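S1.2 Input.
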Amino acid sequence: MDFFWDTLFHFLDYDISIMDMIDLLLVGYLLYRLYQIARGTAAINIFFGLIAIYAVYQLFDLLRMRYITQILGGFISITFIIIVILFQQEIRKYLSQIGKGKMVKNKYVLKFFNSENEENLNMNSIVKACIEFQKTKTGAIIVITHSDDLNFISENAVQLDSEISYPLLDSIFYKNSPLHDGAIVIRNNRIVAARCILPISNDDDFPGELGMRHRAAMGMSEHSDALTIIVSEQNGKISYTQNGKIKIDVSEKQLTNLLNKQFNTENK
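S1.3 Output.
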């Protein structure tokens, strides 16, 4: 018991410097970011398990329990490799976000580094197509890029490089069209590819009543900063995803305002 109190008092008397506080804040922020990208996936349970093991290791080390500390220390020494193996998708997503500047929230700073897509988007054709698809319950997925060019999506799809027009969108998503399945990618006011296969979201909290189009659109929002518009084949509702979030059943006015705000540079 005397050993326990001596250890406790020694810990309380420890001189914590400003650098120690900064170090703790950085560790806390890193853990928070890791929690954010793991939240809603199967990896979240593994994340909490690793945190618990490390906390127990620190406790045993503080109490100078040598043998159990050595066992846990051996496990902790290979934790980095374990994290890389178990969190492959999450780490790739996090590094991708950093590379695309998604950690920077200031849109003017992002614009300085990503000056493409300056041409105004032909949003009238897109809105008209979505409204017509809504009336006929024609399923559609339209991906519009921001800073990420989405080459990893479009390069294995059907290349078009065409101007945006309602007749073209209507023919692509016509139910008997060979290009109907999959999404189209719009970059710099042009339809660059059709029949694109999007990454599927693995979010456990994703609404179960939504279909695979919506889950694919959510996956796209988790892997890029693109805006993805979805028209449901079941009920005709128009939705969109961006930055890992989904907005369901938007009106024509809401869709027009959204596209105008994000892509029409003359009004910015």
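S1.4 Remarks. The first strand starts at residue 140 and ends at 144.
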